[in-house]
């Protein structure tokens, strides 16, 4: 400690602004960036901000919630669970044996339309407890093979459904394709059959790019155990829409997949008879099968969750904005209360 | 002025002594002159600033030391008789160097007349006992002066000399050279011994006093540090009087503070020292120190202890005993209950030991600041060593973690950069936890629905790029630019520093809040997305949700949520920060589009995902908006409540800084009062407060009779 340093620093301060290099200074060049003086806005949560933010959320969310709810309620949905119904009563003790036998599996169920359904009416099958998202299952496919003939033998990911015994590669290979859903439905009302349009149920990108137009099914279901549906070997993969829908693996163990579209309106209280072939074995893992008829609205299918959630959050925001208004402006706070200081709350050391 | 002080002719009776006094200053040192070739001006390179001061003083008076060779010192002396300058060369025969045990240095020179002179300067404690019996003419007077000087915070030295005769010198030189050439372990002791023998029967010349001027702004800085609740210990090599004086001048001590002084200058120990029985001295000293410490503690815990503030002053000798294992905890306890602690006469090792004692004994963070080579040990022992680079050399600066140019910059270093740094690091680390938990836990939750088969709902490349493109840069910018309060406010409200000392921003509470926020975000994102996009059709085309759509939606939600969370966390929104957040969000969509247009075998589930499936679907957009708001709303409400009802220190300051007092002026006034009245026990504001208190008490006492 000495006076020398103190006096020299005064010189330093003086020369800083004058811009004339009076001495050999090591002072770095001034910039707002290095001096941490960048212009910035400093948002702070003032009462006005808080109240108006909550209010804004409420104002935006409540109408959206109502719109979503209306959108969802516009949808007419008919669900029919049939996996038990479609087993003859005698065989219900051992469903797996029945489904694996060669017995006739035709089954007729009827569905009543609760409300007028405008076309297009989408036909879905819904599977429960089917883990299409299991890693072993998801990885068991070959996008290369699906796309081009030359990559036909690119089946390393597909084991054990990669090669048919002695007959070369399976196209399409892998567990996903192997387990293709094969229940079929035919609909009729008043003994007049309803056509189900099975075109246009797959994503366009699948048809155009992911599945090749000159790749034909080959040795499919030829690997010993038969999983699900068989494919017509004369139709290229990019026209096998059922396969394409199935190959988009579902995210959760309960899922629906598009089966087709009915392109006529169905009237209220009409009874639809469904003749279905109950081939698909979900019995060995206690899976449920459901047949769903549904229309759509701008928001998609029927699901009230989004509407209710928007409404709930909107209401909560409204309540919070009211609550904050009260506590901010009615002032129940005792002024000058030092216990609000964070360090006065714990045992302070100094 | 040169020479005028001597008067004319030889009328001044003390002229000879005076001449010798300044001659000694000009000769007895180890400084090296540096002559400026253009101006002829001489500056000096000296070991210590004191030495430089002496040589300069001698030059100003008329004894200009201008050349040093291997064996000689050349001085231009003013001769009052002729009024001219005379160049005289003194042959330096021996230098008996200074060390802390000897506390003095001497040179033996032969002047031009061939006389042998021993010139000696040293501390008063060792010099007075070496004076010749016959030459004690003005000893008493000098002693008084020296005490006065020390009282006013000056560093004093006693100057004395002696003429040697040839025979005596010859014997001394022989033995001294022998001692110097010896290679025994006790070489130092031998040299000291020889020097001891020759440095006696000295003739007193006078005393010097050097002002150890405090650097600019030291008291103000210390006051601020005290307001921030930082406890300061002074570890100095100065002697007790000087140390106490410095304590007063930098406001660590004040009138009305009870000083607990621990030293070994008691008569019984002094008399014991004369006997030379080392064991007895050690035992008595130790007992004495122990007794003084226990007495001090009794004083503090006693009835008057709570009302008073105490200062502990302990000298190096006592410190040596007090730092022994069995006593150091007592010392620490005593010191912790004192407002200021001054350890004087402490050696570099003791400084380091005291630092270690505080560090390990209190488990608090210690910062050592010093400018000299003797502070190096302490700088390295402390958690943070701050070196002051200055006249005392660069050793301290080189051994330190942070080097500054002046003591007062410590204020800015701690309060501005220290606070910002703490803020940035803690926000950054907490945010890192948050964003990775939000992402990782959402993956884990999905895992529970895939019978834990390790299938991720996100595309592999989404997984990889989350921390690379979509969330990395804003948090880096937070770590660089974040400022919760401006530099000016950091300095204005020193109590803000308490946030760091109490670890309010990175304590378990805070970290757990952020972890909880991360888990909450993940839960909201996963469950709300998977419920909103259940098995029903998600677009008017009747398509249902696959793993790709759910993954894409969840990913959008997570990236938006963590980036908006960042925007809510930042207090200092620079254009860069804003730009980076926007960049991350834009990158998300660009990546969706670019990656989705690669061939399906590359992009797998992400192929045309955004362009074909997500973007046209209203349910995607509404789900995303809802989930983001739902994920951020609790944090927003929490912050609103905290800012208003349980404001942390920086939040109060932010509120005041913003200048928006119109909402609630009373509330702002209340905060301002709280912020500006930190309780301190040292520093000049404490001194003012104490004085004011005293006056108030006096007034009260005067008023009391009237009321009763």
TrEMBL record, chain A:
UniProt subcellular location: Membrane
CC per GO annotation: endoplasmic reticulum; Golgi apparatus; plasma membrane
Record-linked Pfam families: CDC50
Coiled-coil stretches noted in the UniProt entry, renumbered to this chain: none
UniProt entry keywords in alphabetical sequence: Membrane, Transmembrane, Transmembrane helix
Lineage per the UniProt record: Eukaryota, Viridiplantae, Streptophyta, Embryophyta, Tracheophyta
Matching InterPro entries: CDC50/LEM3_fam (IPR005045)
Region (Disordered) location: 1-30
Organism the protein comes from: Salix udensis
Membrane topology type: Multi-pass membrane protein
Transmembrane segments: 49-71, 308-330
Keyword set includes Protease: no
Protein name, UniProt field: ALA-interacting subunit
Family classification: Belongs to the CDC50/LEM3 family.
Primary location recorded for the protein, binned into one broad class: membrane
Automatic annotation (TrEMBL), chain B:
Cellular compartments per GO CC: plasma membrane
Membrane topology classification: Multi-pass membrane protein
GO molecular function: ATP binding; ATP hydrolysis activity; ATPase-coupled intramembrane lipid transporter activity; magnesium ion binding
EC number, UniProt record: 7.6.2.1
Cofactor field: Mg(2+)
Binding site for Mg(2+): 371, 375
Reactions catalysed according to its record: ATP + H2O + phospholipidSide 1 = ADP + phosphate + phospholipidSide 2
InterPro entries, per database record: ATPase_P-typ_cyto_dom_N, ATPase_P-typ_TM_dom_sf, HAD-like_sf, HAD_sf, P-type_ATPase_IV, P_typ_ATPase, P_typ_ATPase_c
UniProt-listed SUPFAM superfamilies: Calcium ATPase, transmembrane domain M, HAD-like, Metal cation-transporting ATPase, ATP-binding domain N
Transmembrane segments: 432-449, 461-481, 511-533, 553-573, 580-598, 618-641
Biological processes per GO annotation: phospholipid translocation
Sites where the protein binds ATP: 51, 98, 121, 155, 236-238, 345, 351, 374-375
Subcellular localization(s) per the UniProt record: Membrane
Keyword Transmembrane on entry: yes
Main location: membrane
Domain P-type ATPase C-terminal: 397-647
Any Pfam family matching the protein: Cation_ATPase
Keywords noted in UniProt: ATP-binding, Magnesium, Membrane, Metal-binding, Nucleotide-binding, Translocase, Transmembrane, Transmembrane helix
Keyword Nucleus annotated: no
Family the entry assigns: Belongs to the cation transport ATPase (P-type) (TC 3.A.3) family. Type IV subfamily.
PANTHER family hit by this protein: PHOSPHOLIPID-TRANSPORTING ATPASE (PTHR24092:SF175), PROBABLE PHOSPHOLIPID-TRANSPORTING ATPASE (PTHR24092)
NCBIfam families on file: ATPase-Plipid, ATPase_P-type
Protein name: Phospholipid-transporting ATPase
Organism of origin: Salix udensis
């Amino acid at each position: 400690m000495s006076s020398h340093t103190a006096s020299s620093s005064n010189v330093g301060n003086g020369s800083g602004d004058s811009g004339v290099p009076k001495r050999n200074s090591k002072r770095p060049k001034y910039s707002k960036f290095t001096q941490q003086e960048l212009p910035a806005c400093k948002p702070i949560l003032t009462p006005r901000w808080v109240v108006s933010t909550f209010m804004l959320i409420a104002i935006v969310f409540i109408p959206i919630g109502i719109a979503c709810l209306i959108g969802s309620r516009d949808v007419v949905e008919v669900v029919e669970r049939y996996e038990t119904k479609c087993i003859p009563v005698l065989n219900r003790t051992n469903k797996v044996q029945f489904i694996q036998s060669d017995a006739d599996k035709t089954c007729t169920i009827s569905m009543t339309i609760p409300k007028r359904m405008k076309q297009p009416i989408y036909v879905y099958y819904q599977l429960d407890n089917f883990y299409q998202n299991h890693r072993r299952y998801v990885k068991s496919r070959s996008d290369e093979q699906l796309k081009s003939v030359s990559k036909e033998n690119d089946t390393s990911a597909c084991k054990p459904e990669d090669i048919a015994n002695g007959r070369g590669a399976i196209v399409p290979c892998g567990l996903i394709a192997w387990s293709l859903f094969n229940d079929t439905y035919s609909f009729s009302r008043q003994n007049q059959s309803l056509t189900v349009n099975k075109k246009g149920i797959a994503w366009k990108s699948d048809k155009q790019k992911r599945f090749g137009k000159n790749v034909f099914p080959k040795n499919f279901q030829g690997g010993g155990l038969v999983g699900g549906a068989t494919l017509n070997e004369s139709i290229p993969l990019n026209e096998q829409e059922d396969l394409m829908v199935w190959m988009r693996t579902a995210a959760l163990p309960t899922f629906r997949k598009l089966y087709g579209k009915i392109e006529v309106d169905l009237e209220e209280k009409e009874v639809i008879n469904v003749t279905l072939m109950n081939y698909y074995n979900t019995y060995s893992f206690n899976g449920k099968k459901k047949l769903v008829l549904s229309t759509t609205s701008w928001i998609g299918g029927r699901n009230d969750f989004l509407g209710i959630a928007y409404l709930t959050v909107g209401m909560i925001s409204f309540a919070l904005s009211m609550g904050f208004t009260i506590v901010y402006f009615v002032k129940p706070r005792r002024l000058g209360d030092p216990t609000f200081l964070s360090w006065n709350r714990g045992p302070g050391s100094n | 002025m040169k020479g005028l002080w001597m008067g004319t002719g030889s009328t001044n009776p003390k002229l000879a002594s005076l001449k010798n006094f300044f001659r000694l200053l000009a000769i007895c040192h180890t400084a090296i002159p540096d002559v400026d070739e253009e101006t002829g001006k001489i500056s000096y390179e000296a070991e210590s600033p004191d030495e430089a001061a002496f040589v300069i003083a001698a030059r100003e008076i008329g004894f200009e030391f201008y050349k040093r060779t291997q064996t000689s010192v050349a001085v231009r002396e003013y001769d009052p008789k002729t009024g001219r300058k005379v160049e005289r060369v003194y042959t330096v025969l021996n230098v008996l160097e200074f060390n802390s045990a000897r506390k003095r240095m001497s040179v033996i020179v032969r002047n031009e007349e061939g006389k042998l002179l021993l010139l000696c300067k040293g501390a008063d404690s060792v010099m007075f006992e070496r004076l010749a019996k016959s030459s004690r003419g003005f000893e008493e007077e000098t002693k008084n002066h020296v005490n006065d000087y020390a009282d006013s915070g000056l560093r004093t030295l006693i100057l004395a000399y002696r003429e040697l005769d040839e025979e005596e010198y010859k014997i001394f030189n022989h033995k001294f050279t022998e001692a110097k050439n010896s290679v025994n372990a006790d070489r130092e002791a031998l040299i000291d011994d020889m020097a001891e023998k020759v440095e006696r029967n000295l003739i007193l010349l006078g005393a010097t006093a050097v002002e150890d001027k405090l650097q600019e702004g030291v008291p103000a800085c210390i006051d601020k540090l005290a307001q921030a609740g930082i406890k300061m210990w002074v570890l100095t090599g100065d002697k007790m009087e000087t140390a106490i004086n410095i304590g007063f001048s930098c406001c660590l001590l004040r009138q009305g503070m009870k000083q607990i002084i621990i030293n070994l200058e008691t008569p019984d120990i002094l008399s014991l020292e004369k006997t030379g029985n080392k064991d007895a001295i050690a035992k008595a000293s130790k007992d004495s120190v122990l007794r003084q410490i226990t007495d001090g503690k009794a004083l503090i815990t006693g009835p008057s202890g709570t009302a008073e503030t105490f200062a502990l002053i302990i000298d190096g000798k006592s410190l040596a005993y007090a730092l022994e294992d069995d006593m150091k905890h007592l010392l620490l306890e005593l010191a912790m209950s004192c407002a200021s602690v001054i350890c004087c006469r402490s050696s570099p090792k003791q400084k380091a030991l005291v630092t270690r004692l505080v560090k390990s004994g209190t488990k608090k963070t210690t910062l050592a600041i010093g400018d000299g080579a003797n502070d190096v040990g302490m700088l390295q022992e402390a958690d943070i060593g701050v070196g002051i680079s200055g006249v005392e050399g660069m050793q301290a600066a080189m051994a330190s973690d942070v080097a500054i140019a002046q003591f007062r910059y410590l204020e800015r270093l701690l309060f501005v950069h220290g606070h910002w740094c703490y803020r940035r690091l803690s926000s950054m680390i907490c945010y890192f936890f948050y964003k990775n938990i939000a992402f990782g836990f959402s993956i884990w939750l999905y895992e529970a629905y895939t019978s834990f088969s390790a299938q991720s709902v996100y595309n592999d490349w989404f997984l990889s790029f989350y921390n690379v493109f979509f969330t990395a840069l804003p948090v880096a910018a937070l770590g660089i630019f974040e400022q919760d309060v401006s530099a000016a406010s950091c300095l204005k409200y020193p109590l803000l520093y308490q946030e760091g000392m109490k670890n309010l921003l990175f304590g378990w509470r805070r970290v757990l809040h952020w972890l909880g926020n991360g888990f909450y975000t993940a839960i909201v994102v996963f469950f709300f997305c998977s419920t909103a996009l259940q098995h029903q059709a998600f677009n008017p085309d009747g398509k249902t949700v696959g793993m790709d759509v759910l993954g894409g939606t969840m990913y959008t939600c997570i990236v938006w949520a963590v980036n908006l969370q960042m925007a809510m966390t930042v207090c200092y929104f620079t254009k860069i920060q804003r730009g980076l957040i926007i960049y991350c969000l834009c990158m998300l969509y660009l990546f969706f589009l670019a990656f989705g247009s690669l061939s399906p075998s590359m992009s797998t589930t992400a192929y045309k995902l955004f362009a074909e499936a997500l973007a046209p679907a209203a349910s995607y957009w509404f789900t995303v908006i809802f989930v983001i708001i739902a994920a951020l709303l609790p944090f927003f409400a929490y912050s609103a409540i905290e800012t208003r009802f349980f404001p942390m220190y920086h939040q109060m300051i932010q509120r005041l800084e913003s200048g928006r007092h119109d909402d609630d002026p009373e509330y702002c006034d209340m905060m301002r009062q709280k912020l500006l009245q930190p309780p301190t026990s040292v520093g000049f504001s404490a001194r003012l407060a104490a004085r004011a208190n005293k006056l108030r008490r006096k007034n009260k006492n005067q008023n009391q009779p009237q009321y009763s």
